[in-house]
């Protein structure tokens, strides 16, 4: 920095202003904001005006952020709307190494308090290398209001982004930060101008409606105050002694998973046996009719109606034979009949088929091989009788399957696609899942011979691989990794080249060897969305996303579910947390296990503090109701509680037991049982 001020640039994105700089009004307005409420901390070092062009926008930003002396802040103005020419977010997003959705929320919330149309903007914010980038609206008024709403918070972020140590910055806590920035904890709605915001006019902001606090979402903790994982190099004496992660309710954890699960990806695939389990991303129209020809639905004799329209019974020569096989069939003349089999094409000229049961053989050929004449015993036959008309099952052009519908393992949908010759469909790509066990004590389950003291056979990997595959997802065995930081990081990095989702087990509790959270946060630059859930078993369940690039260099995120090491916990958490996310990524709806009400067949104890997922066997009885019985000891280490279990009873947190006969929710994991009668 040339002086002590923070260096900013204003980039106006406007077709008109880029042609005639004199028409721009944003730069002077934004300069005023920096000078006015910037506490003398800012210097606007550069301004530039470019047209709505991704390349031009990116060139400017990169010239300011990727150089030797990067700027602290770049604000753009314009091009964030929904018009097709608006490309600023598309230009900026790929340049950001780290997104700052909080700033986006803050800006939107502040303009939303002026007009709901504020939501019609698509701002992005984040850090490129050492530079914070914000996209403001194109109107001078909107740009001004947006910048005002966040500017006071930015010095802190910019200093951190530029690489300052955060510890000294945070000495004194949030209160000091707020005092330094001249803001209060009332949410960002109060930020513009602090207490002196009279000059900041919000024409439609009517305080008399009691919406005083409505303008901004309010978080109760600030990002910098939120926990970071243990620093593994600090050693056991310096580790956290209680989990620094807030304890979330299961529903909140599920919401976070849903919000952070990558969007389903659409792909074209051939119609083959691998299609089972897929969900269609586009409607499918029939390219052909079924049947494709007029076909007989019985074995019998095709007949031609006389002009009178009334077919008379009597003896007829068998002039032709039509089998259910490809080929041409000769024309049937009036006064003749054709022997025909079920599914065979009607000869041209034929109008109806008489069932073989309504006929008797009159004469056969000399060699006794073929029929020469038959007697038709009925005169009541109608045109079209026993004939399946072209397209009577499916008409060419009909929509046979809709977007969002699944190809089930029952087979009906595949059958339908097959029947009309569909060779390719668009489906949501099913994520590939890697399963990894962690722990120095874990050995392959099939290791021969007695265990050494401390060794534990890997129970989680085989169980989780089975569970994943049972839901028709491809599961990749990632093996066992030791509790050494480098090993875990390398294994996760390698795994993400092959898989979309990683499930790990172990290493998420409080022990000093619990490396998952620090490795995800510190080594992989991931975000831990939660690290503790109020449930039993499964309290330390952790969900994180990691930023990565795909083969084409596009920025993507992938998820890691770090499940507890205890086998029963790991399996419960797979069903409760991982499966819904896999479903969402594969376009399957509704997500997760089906939930049903069951009647308890015995008393079941509850946990006083945490809702419990109790392993149970659910079966139908003669009365048509579903009954549940416990599979026994529910200790989280006891995988045996999963033997025979086909359901998880969702037991509320309460003292005592739920009684036999009471109803409770159950998540169905497997096929319903049937109780002996
Ligand atoms: P951790 O979360 O790593 O502290 O593990 C908690 C408990 O689960 C410990 O007793 C581990 O030995 C056990 N455990 C962890 N991973 C596995 C596994 N893959 N199979 C069986 N037990 C495990
Ligand atoms: Mg461990």
TrEMBL record:
InterPro entries: MoaB/Mog-like_dom_sf, MoaB/Mog_dom, MoCF_biosynth_CS, MoeA-like, MoeA_C_domain_IV, MoeA_C_domain_IV_sf, MoeA_linker/N, MoeA_linker/N_sf. GO terms for cellular component: cytosol. GO terms for molecular function: ATP binding; metal ion binding; molybdopterin adenylyltransferase activity; molybdopterin molybdotransferase activity. Residues 180-241 are annotated as: Disordered. Residues 197-220 have a biased composition (Basic residues). Keywords: Magnesium, Metal-binding, Molybdenum, Molybdenum cofactor biosynthesis, Transferase. Pfam families: MoCF_biosynth, MoeA_C, MoeA_N. Pathway: Cofactor biosynthesis; molybdopterin biosynthesis. Its cofactor is Mg(2+). Residues 9-157, 434-584 form the MoaB/Mog domain. It catalyses: adenylyl-molybdopterin + molybdate = Mo-molybdopterin + AMP + H(+); molybdopterin + ATP + H(+) = adenylyl-molybdopterin + diphosphate. Signal peptide: none annotated. Gene3D superfamilies: MoaB/Mog-like domain, MoeA, C-terminal, domain IV, Molybdopterin biosynthesis moea protein, domain 2, Molybdopterin biosynthesis moea protein, domain 3. The keyword Magnesium applies. GO terms for biological process: Mo-molybdopterin cofactor biosynthetic process. PROSITE patterns: MOCF_BIOSYNTHESIS_2. Catalyzes two steps in the biosynthesis of the molybdenum cofactor. In the first step, molybdopterin is adenylated. Subsequently, molybdate is inserted into adenylated molybdopterin and AMP is released. In the N-terminal section; belongs to the MoaB/Mog family. This is MoaB/Mog domain-containing protein. It comes from Massariosphaeria phaeospora.
């Amino acid at each position: 920095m040339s002086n002590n001020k923070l260096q900013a640039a204003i980039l106006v994105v406007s077709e008109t202003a880029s042609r005639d700089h004199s028409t721009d009004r944003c730069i002077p307005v934004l300069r005023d904001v920096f000078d006015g409420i910037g506490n003398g901390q800012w210097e606007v070092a550069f301004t530039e005006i470019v047209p709505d062009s991704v390349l031009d926008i990116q060139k400017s930003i990169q010239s300011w952020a990727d150089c030797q002396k990067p700027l602290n802040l770049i604000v753009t103005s314009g091009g964030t709307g929904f018009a097709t020419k608006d490309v600023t977010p598309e230009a900026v997003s790929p340049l950001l190494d780290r997104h700052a959705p909080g700033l986006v929320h803050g800006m939107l919330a502040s303009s939303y308090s002026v007009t709901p149309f504020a939501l019609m903007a698509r701002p992005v914010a984040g850090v490129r290398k050492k530079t914070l980038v914000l996209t403001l609206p194109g109107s001078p008024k909107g740009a001004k209001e947006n910048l005002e709403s966040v500017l006071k918070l930015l010095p802190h972020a910019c200093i951190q982004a530029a690489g300052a140590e955060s510890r000294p910055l945070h000495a004194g806590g949030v209160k000091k930060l707020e005092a330094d920035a001249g803001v209060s904890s009332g949410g960002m709605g109060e930020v513009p101008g602090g207490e002196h915001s009279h000059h900041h006019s919000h024409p439609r902001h009517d305080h008399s409606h009691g919406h005083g606090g409505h303008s901004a979402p309010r978080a109760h903790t600030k990002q910098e105050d939120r926990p970071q994982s243990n620093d593994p190099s600090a050693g056991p004496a310096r580790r956290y002694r209680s989990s620094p992660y807030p304890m979330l309710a299961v529903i909140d954890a599920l919401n976070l998973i849903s919000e952070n699960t990558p969007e389903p990806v659409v792909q074209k695939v051939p119609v083959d046996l691998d299609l089972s389990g897929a969900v269609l991303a586009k409607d499918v129209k029939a390219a052909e009719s079924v049947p494709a020809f007029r076909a007989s639905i019985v074995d019998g004799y095709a007949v031609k109606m006389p002009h009178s329209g009334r077919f008379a019974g009597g003896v007829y020569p068998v002039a032709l034979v039509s089998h259910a096989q490809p080929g041409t069939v000769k024309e049937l003349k009036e006064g003749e009949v054709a022997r025909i089999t079920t599914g065979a094409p009607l000869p041209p000229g034929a109008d109806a088929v008489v069932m073989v049961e309504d006929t008797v053989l009159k004469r056969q050929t000399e060699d006794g091989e073929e029929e020469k004449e038959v007697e038709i015993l009925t005169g009541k036959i109608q045109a079209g009788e026993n004939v399946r008309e072209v397209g009577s099952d499916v008409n060419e052009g009909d929509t046979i399957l809709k977007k969002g519908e699944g190809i089930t393992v029952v087979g009906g949908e595949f059958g339908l696609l097959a029947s009309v010759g569909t060779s390719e469909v668009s489906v949501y790509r099913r994520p590939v899942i890697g399963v990894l066990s962690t722990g120095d004590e874990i050995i392959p389950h099939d290791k021969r011979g007695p265990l050494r003291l401390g060794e534990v056979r890997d129970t989680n990997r085989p169980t989780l691989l089975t569970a994943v595959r049972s839901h028709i997802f491809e599961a990749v065995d990632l093996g066992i990794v030791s509790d050494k930081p480098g090993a875990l990081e390398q294994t996760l990095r390698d795994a993400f080249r092959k898989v979309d989702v990683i499930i790990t087990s172990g290493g998420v509790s409080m022990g000093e060897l619990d490396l998952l959270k620090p490795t995800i946060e510190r080594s992989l630059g991931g975000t831990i969305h939660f690290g503790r859930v109020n449930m039993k078993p499964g309290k330390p369940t952790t969900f994180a996303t990691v930023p990565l690039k795909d083969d084409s260099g596009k920025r993507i995120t992938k998820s890691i579910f770090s499940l507890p090491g205890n086998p029963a916990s790991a399996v419960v958490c797979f069903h409760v947390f991982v499966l819904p996310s896999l479903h969402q990524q594969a376009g399957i709806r509704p997500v997760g296990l089906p939930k049903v009400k069951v009647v308890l067949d015995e008393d079941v104890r509850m946990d006083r503090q945490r809702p419990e997922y109790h392993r149970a066997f659910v079966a139908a009885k003669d009365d048509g109701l579903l009954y549940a019985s416990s599979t026994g000891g529910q200790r989280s280490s006891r995988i045996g509680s999963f033997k025979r279990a086909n359901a998880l009873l969702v037991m509320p947190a309460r003292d005592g037991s739920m009684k036999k006969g009471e109803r409770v929710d159950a998540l169905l994991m497997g096929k319903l049982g049937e109780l002996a009668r």
